[in-house]
Fold this sequence. Notes:
The structure is a single chain. By secondary structure, the protein is an alpha+beta fold. It has one domain. The chain has two helices and six strands; from the N terminus they run E-E-H-E-E-E-E-H. The strands form two sheets. Strands 3-6-5-4 form a four-stranded antiparallel β-sheet, covered by helices on one side. The chain has a two-stranded antiparallel ribbon with strand order 1-2. Strand 1 (6-8) and strand 2 form a beta hairpin. The radius of gyration is 13 Å and the shape is globular.
Amino acid sequence: MPFRLRTAQGKLKIEHSIIEGVRPLLETLLSQSPEIRSVIPGVIRPVRDAKGKVRIHVTVPTTNGWKAIALSAGARQELFISTAMDKQALEKALVKCGAES
Length: 101
């Protein structure tokens, strides 16, 4: 049986789970930033320093946007953000949505 890709607002691609606290932030980001084409959450790994408020670090450019790392609830998750925004504009949009950078 093939796996069906589920979407939220058509822009948040949900292939597997999203760490606690990150999904509402991403949904707000997508609703406030029409220049973001999509966000694809990636692998989740446990880490020790991911406590308190959700933090998102924009790390490296990809072919169609940016890779970011979300830290929350004792875990880290890769986020692939498809956008033409530059790094500063994306970081500013994430802070506006409530993420710490």
